[in-house]
Known about the structure:
By secondary structure, the chain is an alpha/beta fold.
Amino acid sequence: MRLTAFYGGLFLLAGVVLLTITNILVNHTTGDVVYSARPADRFQPASPDGRSARSDHLPMDARQLHAELGRLHARDVHQFLVQSGVALAITAVACIALGYVLASRALRPVRTITAQARTISAHNLHKRVKVEGPADELKLLGDTFDELLDRLEQAFDAQRQFIANVSHELRSPLARQRAITEVALGDAEANAATLRAAHERVLVAEVQQERLIDALLALARGQASVQHPRPVDLADITARVLDARRDEASRRGLKISTSLDHAETTGDPRLVERLATNLIDNAIRHNQAGGRVDIRTSTHSGSAHLDVANTGPVVPAAAVERIFQPFRRLDPDRTHSGDGLGLGLSIVQAIANSHGAAITTSVRPEGGLHIRISFTPIADTEPNRASTVTS
C-alpha cells in the first residue's frame, strides 16, 4: 500500500506539472491567433509593415468581435483545463490500481521468503526458500537467506554432534566410577586396603572428568571474541610452556629443537598460552620413540608466527581437517582416547578464530605434522574463521 501510494502520488504530481505547463503553452500560443474570416471592407487595413491594425483603431463591430473571440478563447482554455483534469483523475485511478497490482507482483518473493521463514525452526533447517525468477535484488535476497540457512544447519548439526560426543565422553568415566563403587560396596569381604584401592580408581576417573571439563571450558572461552587484547610475545609464552614440558619429552625419549625469536602480537595472554600448550602437547603425545619436536617463533611481514613440527605416524592428507574437529582423532574409533581427550586441536582452532589468526597445516611425508599459527594485530584485523590449509 505504501508503494502504491508513493507511486500514485508521484504520478499525480507529474500530471499536475504537465497540465500546468500545457495550459500555459496553449494559452500563450492560441491567444495571439488572428481570425481573418471577416469581410475585408468592415475592418481597417493592415499597417504598412504588414501587421494587423491595433484593436483600438478598429470599427466598433470589429472591437466587439475581437472581445467575443477573447471570451471564446478563455472558455476554450478553461474547458481544456477541466477536461484535462478529469482525464488526469481517471488516469490516476487506473494507474493506482495498476500500481497496486505491479507492487503486489513485485513483492511476491518477499512474501514467499517471509512465509517460508516463519515455518523454519531448529527441527526443519533443511528447508529452503528457493526464490525463482530473474537475477534481481529479490532473488539475491532469497539466495542469501538460503546460504544463511545452510550455515545455520551446519552449526546446529555440529552442535548436536558435539553434545552427543560430550555426553559419550562424560558417560564413560561416570559409568566406571559407578561400577567401581558398586563392586566395592557389594564385596562382603572388603577391607580398608580394597576400599582404598577402589577410591583411588574413582579419583582417577574424576581426574579424567576434570580434564574434560577444563578442556570444554577452554574451548568455550576460545570461541568467544577477545574483549581486551594486550601485547603478547609468542617467544616468552612458548618458552614458559616448554619449561613445563621438557620432563615429559625426556621420558618419551624426544628431542626438542627451538628457535624462539621475538614475535609480538596482541591478544589474550591466557588463551595464547593455552594454544601453545595444546600445540606442544599434541606434538609430544603423537610422536614416536626417539622422535623430535621443532618449535619456532618468528615475525614476517608484520605477522607473528608460531611453528610446531613433530615426527610421528604418517597422517593422511584427508584426515587433517578431521583432527581439528572436537573428539575426532586419526583413529576412526572415537572411544579410543589414549593420552588425549580429542579436544586439543579444536581448542587451538577456536583460539585462533577469536584472534583472527590463520592455521596452516602441512603433512610431513616421513610422518608427523607441521602446524603454523599466523597472528596479526587484532586492531588491524577483524576475527575471522581460521583457515586450515593442507599440503
